[in-house]
Amino acid sequence: MYELDSAPSVPATARREVRAVLTDWQVSPEAIDTAVQVISEIAANAVEHTLSSRVQFEVGCYPDGEIHVAVRDSGPRPEAPLAARTDGTLKERGRGLLLVDTLTSKWGAEPVPENGLLVWAMIQTGGPA
Fold it and tell me: Which residues form the Histidine kinase/HSP90-like ATPase domain (predicted)?
């Protein structure tokens, strides 16, 4: 588990750390790229859309090779991830969760005690790491 002050640099730090950990675990480059993109999107949402002073993130790999990434914020809002717009009104922004949904086998969000939200995602790798 990594814990950082909420700042615009959090997504970059999350990408770098997730890539390093999964490379050490000898995960396939394609699965690493997917996990890096997913953690970046979730971390960016935590920084941009909450009032968190701290952001935590983690990465894990199950014996079957499935990758787990998660980001926890400590902000009072939002109580759930903002729904992605699918009506074509967003040109440059607002598609992060659509991307997460496309790239992952499953994902979700859970309120955490006191304040905040834990957003997690699972990424299939096609086999044991």
Answer: 12-106
Check which CATH number belongs to the domain holding 27 and give it: 3.30.565.10
Number of domains present in the structure of the chain: 1
On whether residue 57 sits in a domain, the answer given is yes
The average pLDDT across 79-93 equals 53
pTM (predicted TM-score): 0.84
Q: Which residues constitute the domain of residue 40?
A: 2-123
* Residue pair 78/49 in contact by the 8 Å Cβ criterion: yes
Residues contacting residue 78 through CB under 8 Å, at least 6 positions apart = 49, 50, 117
Bridge-partner residues for 68, per DSSP?
60, 122
> Does residue 86 contact residue 79 with C-beta atoms inside 8 Å?
no
